[in-house]
Please model this.
Amino acid sequence: MTKAYRSNLSWEQWELIEKEFPLPKAGGRPRRIAIYTVVNAILYVLCEGCTWRGLPGDFPAWSTVYGYFWRWSQDGTWLKIHDKLYQWTRVAAGREPSPSEAAVDSQSVETATMISQEVGYDAGKKIHGRKRHLSVD
Model:
């Protein structure tokens, strides 16, 4: 049993995303570790900014936690969870699940040409500098 950390998911939060994590592979060893504790360990690393080896001892072994994190990064599990939470957040705010349009804008910012080699020229505004972009829903 792990201690209660600020980064831990509540049971209600866990129930929202629990189904998105892959089931154990058929034919392998039975899973002996609770995925809930693995996810909480990953969130601890992300929130506290510690290294994988710096995980407190009441979480599973750091190599196990990192192994799950890496696998879920490769197979798209994190992306599925992100997309689902993103859509739920939009619906909770009274919006459509995905944006129907986006506004894109750019701005040229003048910089000194001798400061950096990464300076371009905006012929429309006739200035040397950088161009920054903004996209909003």
